[in-house]
Fold:
Amino acid sequence: MRFWPLVWSNLRRRKARTSFTLLSVVVAFVLFAYLAAVKVAFRAGVDVAGADRLFTTHKTSLIQPLPKAYQEQIARVPGVVAVTHASWFGGIYQNPNTGFQGVFQAPVEPEAYLAMYPEFLVPAPQRQAWLEDREGVLVGRKTAERYGWKVGDRVPVQGTIWRKKDGTKVWEFNVRGIYDGAEKGTDTTQFLFHYDYFDEARQFGEGIVGWYVVRIAEPTQAAEVGARIDAVFANSPNETKTVTEKALAQGFADQIGDIGAIIQWILAAVFFTLLLVAGNTMAQSVRERTAELAVLKTLGYSDGRVLALVLAESTLLAVLGGGLGLLLGSVAIAAGDPTGGFLPVFYFPERDVVLGVVFVALLGFVTGILPALQAKRLRIVEALRRA
Amino acid sequence: MRSLLHWFAQVGAVTATAVRTIPERRGASLATVFGIAGVVAVFVAVLSIGEGFRKTLRSAGSPENAMVLRSGSDSEMMSVMLGNAIEIIAQAPGVARGVVDGAEMPLSSAELFVIVDVPKRSTGTPANVPLRGVQPAAFSTRPELRITAGRKFEWGKNEVLVGEGALKQFAGLDVGTKLQWGRSEWTVVGTFAAGGALWESEIWSDARVLQPAYNRGNSFQTVIARLESAAAFDRFKDALTTDPRLDVQVLRETEYYGNQGRTLNAIIQGLGFTVSLLMAVGAVFGALNTMYSAVAARTREVATLRALGFGAGAVVISVLAEAMLLAAGGGALGAASAWLFFDGYRTSTLNWDTFSQVTFAFEVTPRLLVEGTVFALALGLVGGLMPALRAARLPVTAALREA
Structure:
């Protein structure tokens, strides 16, 4: 389009103002990207929860253990395809302050657990090495990077609840594998080791597990199968409560509660405030040039062309600023979450990238359209007289 | 001396002109005020979450109380202590003695700390509410605790007391309610307040009744001991940590609660800092724009003043003063709205360190209000400096001609 030089020189008219406006738009969209990532973090897991996985916990609370003997009974419940278990370890790595926070550590049945979570991708040789080493541990990519671990490293973790039979606190593990997530939202912070090794070595609590993970044949039957499992253990010393993985994750999001919602509201409010301020400046800079637009019209520019010219200017500014902002935002998010590893899932979902692009387009249009319409309706004589 | 006075008079005159003409630049000035107000409101609001949370933890600690946990356990939830250790700790040097329920005894309470699923009022979904089993001396180690409705539970019965915070945030905990946990039924017999401390988020019962319900045999998790004085702590600690029969760590209660809430603090501070920083950058750009256009609008005026003999310094200060005034207005507006909307807002969230719910109120302290305003002024200064220098450097003749 041969009018680009004109649009461009209009933007360069007041370089300082244009660059500050541009930078505010950039900041607004960096913030938008953060908002999206924080939203995902606080909903940790709800969106990627496996529809065919159920969790069976103690009815009173998740911290109450269940007997290992329940496994076979659950496996016999109609509709259940597979069942495995995990337990809470809660150890400390290095010092308690930088600790192991945000890292889910659990003794599991290695083979069955990987079958239960096909979204954990492990190279076959590493998988084999982990299965064969009783003291082996499988670590998620994010945790491995956070602590700089490589396959073959020996990692001492201090137990807080669990000690070894000889009374010592430190459990040593060999990093045998590092898994990646099949999806962006997959939790790659986990630290998974052998239940058999853990159960034999621990000082007390032999033969108990934290909770069961159950795969069902038909996701639509989740409620029925859950009720059947709970019915098996009704009126036993350890009654159970079975919910879908999604419900469990949603429960945790609800437990974090309105803190998450409030932070999101704040971010959203800030985003729109910044847009408002930037938009105001963009609109103002067009209004200031009323006389020039009148001159253009005098020279024979049609109403439509003046409209297009003004819209092109605001859109260009929005696209440059917004595009750069979204880009910088996604780079910053990829570099890690701002809390130093406390949020296990932190990424910029594609859905929100699209939404961001829509906002960019809206910003360009809304800030341009009013002055553009004014420019279109401009009566040459009046505008020239006013100037 | 005369020249200094003269200079001040100049500054005053130019600044007054600048300020008087703000209404002519209403749009841009308002945008700056609101931009800065937004930044300050968010800054104060986010920090008030952390402030309220920390206050709840802080009020739970008394310097005269010591907490005993198994060594290597970083929270009550993770600790395990067997019955035989309890008596050794109670008899240790430094533990205060007092009369509890008519009997003279050491003021030490062995406690269980577990969680129980209770639905949240706001969502109806189950939340991990802390359930604490205590011994008779527990009430003497926490003198701020008082019954606000009903009565204390009877020792040996399946009865519970509910903290005021828990009562407000979680459903079905009113006095008289019967609760089914595991195979036993519990009755809520009263509620308590504890001066805003963490315990208000909890449900309390007799530890001896709770042990069988949670299959804990004769084990506990922590011991809270009232000391003869705060100074007796070292004596108490040395006696326990050197005792070969024990494997414990001893902390002042203040120290223990000071360390709690690390995860939540890190999240709030990490996010709060990032967001405030980004917003500050955005607001500075807004302020810069406003001040540049303010200088542009006043070009003729400034040039006239300079031609009349007003100094460059006076012009710089007048522009800066205008920027700071707008910033101060925005700062005050932002701080006030944060205080209005967020101070005292009650909520509950998951304290990751104990894996249980903690209820607390947002706390907009005077210190936060001051910090917010100082932040606003800093933004004004940064946003006003460059435009002020430009105003001072305007070549007088060119500026007069241009205008």
Observations:
- The mean pLDDT of chain A is 87.
